[in-house]
Specification:
This protein is an alpha+beta fold. The chain is 53% helix and 9% strand.
């Protein structure tokens, strides 16, 4: 099985597919392509009709889109254990993931993922509202599930995978959070596989100018 990803420093969508495999100890070959290069477009064209990363290649099957990849991994390799065991928690987990997957455009546009940087930006009111909403969601889920572990639903799940790029964004731009949300942020940032991704991001030399947003601090 292969996972095709973009630059680790910038590619938030790639992080989701990669972390879903790494955190659940599923063997795979990592193929990293430099974003917007000729190789990037030519290689992706072999596996995906949309030309975006990540792409999971499992024998003769290609799966693109990070959520589809996570669902495939969950069904094929995790026996459903990627989501919370409790039915109600699974429904909530899928709800917050769907919201993350299709929304939060203020956070995405104003705080592009740039793992190795420390930047300052002036957020719009919409982005500030999105940050506050995430803070509330994280705090609420942690309060409800604290007895089962340190992640959103106690044990690590695909819900945590989907918020991983936001964790790096908040680190880059110095976003302030409530105590409960900050504790979750710290837990995620310390995850061993998140630290591997961060180390690899720092080692990269490519620069994507579109993602170099804000004033350096």
């Amino acid at each position: 099985m292969k996972l095709i990803i973009g630059n680790k420093n910038y590619s938030s969508w790639s992080l989701r597919g990669w972390l879903a495999l790494k955190a659940f100890n599923i063997p795979f070959e990592e193929i990293k392509l430099s974003l917007f290069s000729d190789e990037f477009h030519s290689e992706l064209a072999k596996h995906s009709p949309v030309g975006k990363v990540p792409v999971l290649v499992d024998n003769d099957l290609s799966v693109w889109d990070s959520l589809a990849i996570c669902e495939y991994i969950n069904e094929t390799y995790l026996d459903g254990k990627g989501w919370p065991e409790d039915k109600k928690n699974r429904a909530v987990a899928r709800s917050v993931v769907a919201d993350m997957h299709s929304g939060l455009f203020g956070i995405r546009n104003e705080m592009p993922m740039n793992c190795r940087a420390k930047r300052r930006v002036e957020l719009s009111d919409n982005a500030k509202k999105e940050v506050a909403n995430l803070d509330n969601i994280w705090s609420d889920l942690r309060a409800k599930n604290a007895q089962n572990g340190d992640y959103l639903f106690g044990t690590f799940s695909l819900a945590d995978v989907f918020f991983a790029p936001v964790i790096f964004r908040f680190s880059t731009y110095g976003i302030k959070l409530s105590d409960a949300a900050s504790a979750y942020y710290t837990t995620m940032l310390a995850h061993p596989d998140m630290q591997v991704w961060l180390k690899d991001s720092v080692a990269e030399v490519e620069i994507v100018s579109q993602a170099e947003t804000g004033e350096a601090v």
